[in-house]
Design brief:
This protein has 158 residues and is an alpha/beta fold. The protein has four helices and five strands. Strand 1, helix 2 and strand 2 form a beta-alpha-beta unit. One of its GO terms (molecular function) is oxidoreductase activity.
């Protein structure tokens, strides 16, 4: 028997699909839309958290496919893919505060804008994506990452 708990990868996808299916009649009536929060990890490899990245890649593909399925009903589906963002994500996983601070400082050096986003910045993107101002946006994966995905290590040419 497969594990369908909400925290296992198969369970997570079963839950997301089931919840979406339950919401479709209401979304159709209200002209609502779906905005999932994924991660730029869906587009990069990370040996430290490979299953997290795999799950987020699946969520991105879910959004594209469900956008195609639901567009005829007037329901939009999109994903916001944040980069490093100041949240309780790391501390919730038992990482001590001092280590979290060092990790954030080290990782920030690889972000072209040299900082993590604030949660409020991500909330503003979510609000826009769910609003009527984004009424022509569907099936999109929006990366808000301070330039993380365009960062390339400099080659030394000497």
């Amino acid at each position: 028997m497969r594990d369908r708990s909400p925290t296992s990868p198969p369970g997570l996808f079963f839950f997301i699909i089931h919840l979406t299916e339950l919401a479709i009649p209401h979304l159709e009536k209200t002209k609502g839309n779906i905005v999932n929060v994924s991660s730029i990890g869906s587009q990069k490899t990370s040996p430290q958290v490979p299953f997290y990245c795999i799950a987020k890649a699946g969520l991105d593909h879910f959004a594209r496919n469900y956008a195609a399925l639901l567009a005829p009903k007037g329901i939009r589906v999109n994903n916001l893919n944040p980069g490093g963002t100041s949240t309780a994500f790391i501390s919730r996983h038992g990482v001590p505060q001092e280590m979290e601070k060092k990790m954030s400082e080290d990782y920030s050096q690889h972000i072209p804008l040299k900082r993590f986003a604030e949660s409020k910045e991500m909330a503003e993107f979510l609000f826009f994506m769910a609003s009527e101002k984004a009424s022509y946006l569907t099936g999109q994966i929006i990366n808000v990452d301070g330039g993380s995905l365009i960062n390339s290590p400099a080659m030394k040419l000497d």
